[in-house]
Design a protein that fits this description.
Elements lengths: L4 E6 L9 H7 L3 E6 L14 E4 L14 H14 L3 E5 L1 H9 L4 E16 L1 H5 L1 H4 L4 E12 L5 E6 L7 E4 L3 E4 L7 H11 L12 H6 L3 H18 L5
Parallel strand pairs: 1-2, 1-3, 3-4, 4-9
Antiparallel strand pairs: 5-6, 5-7, 7-8, 8-9
Helix pairs in contact: 2-3
């Protein structure tokens, strides 16, 4: 595998790379970051091959409270147009969607917990995805969703959220869910977001969130397969 220069955007202290950092380290890739809660300085496009955009508690539409969001969205679009590989996770997927011109808005229901995502017809027809099974149980923590941007391939949906993942031009992957969750990152998210764990159809209790902690390993394996495919350069569509 070619050695990559990977830059990531982190929006809050408690949502870092999680198990993605293990994949980066084990493959010998280099890593740099912009942590918007500390410094909003953006890198040069020539400084990286991949851009990973992580989650956060804010909305992509909160530009008045977080003025750097406007610059971030413009930068993500520039990175996409420059042919960079881009991975967006949760808030990151929403930022990528906004950068591609799609609307981001409140989902009908918050989705917090371990819930199944289903393969779309395309994903079922693709051997790479079909080998994963018809559904996956993954970790969610989001209240917003997005319309699908133009010219993307829809990959996953769930009972609580229609648009869970898509691929754009074989090199831009948006995931509404958190495959990168580790035991520690799960505990950190609960600690910071405990006030959101109010009874609802798609919100689990703290006990339920922690009782499914063993799923972090199966999610990590799926994540590494997705990252390997992105890195391979093989077409997705």
């Amino acid at each position: 595998m070619e050695k990559l220069r990977i830059h990531y955007f982190q929006h809050v202290k408690y949502e870092g790379l999680g198990s993605i950092e293990e994949w980066i380290s084990s493959n010998g890739h280099s890593l740099s970051s912009t942590r918007f809660f500390e410094d909003t300085t953006l890198p040069e496009l020539s400084d990286f091959d991949w851009l990973i955009v992580m989650g956060g508690s804010m909305s992509v539409n909160d530009e008045q409270q977080f003025p750097w969001l406007a610059d971030e969205k413009r930068f993500i679009r520039r990175a996409i147009d420059a042919g960079k590989t881009v991975l967006g996770i949760c808030l990151g997927s929403q930022l990528v969607s906004a950068a591609l011109g799609a609307k981001v808005y409140k989902n009908k229901e918050k989705e917090i917990g371990w819930f199944n995502i289903e393969l779309t017809c395309f994903a079922k027809s693709d051997q790479f995805f079909s080998e994963m099974g018809s559904r996956l149980k993954v970790f969610h923590w989001h209240g917003d969703t997005f319309d699908l941007p133009e010219n993307v391939v829809h990959l996953f949906y769930s009972a609580g959220c229609k648009h869970q993942a898509y691929i754009y031009k074989d090199r831009v992957l948006a995931l509404q869910f958190h495959l990168e969750t580790t035991t520690n990152s799960l505990k950190d998210m609960i600690e910071q977001g405990r006030q959101e764990l109010k009874p609802a159809r798609f919100i689990q209790t703290e006990k339920e969130l922690l009782s499914n902690n063993q799923l972090t390993e199966s999610n990590r394996k799926v994540l590494f397969k997705l990252l390997d495919r992105l890195a391979s350069g093989h077409p997705w569509t």
